[in-house]
Predict the 3D structure of the following.
Amino acid sequence: MIKLIVDSASDVDATEAEQLGVSLIPLQVRFGSEEFSDGVNLSHRQFFEKLIESAELPQTSQINEFRWGELFEKETQNENQVIAVTISSKLSGTYSCAKKAAKNFVGKVWVVDSLNASIGERILLQYALKLVAQGGLSAQEIADK
């Protein structure tokens, strides 16, 4: 079975990820001393409300290699193959960390640099979901497309 993972820069929240059958790995967002998991305990609406209300700009932190490795370990159970779609490598180190973690899962995990964020990343996820549903392509072939 092919499993899909997307980071929260795609603007997919936890509820939608569950409905789509994909795994969501959230970026961490900090407003001052408060830290949130994007799309999990901080909705998009709450983010923009805090953005207006806060005197400080938010800070995000990339998803590190360890967190990717934990998720890849979980998702590759039962011979599953994984395609992870990430925020652009030009915007975050998240892609690089995912690639490093994927080296421990050769032939099981493929990482796709969306070269986008938000809607661009979401479009790639939706395309991957369509290709998986159609069947006939391997995880490698879907990642290549």
About this structure: The chain is about 40% helix and 20% strand. The longest helix spans residues 119-134. The beta strands are 2-7, 23-25, 28-31, 34-37, 59-61, 81-86, 109-113.
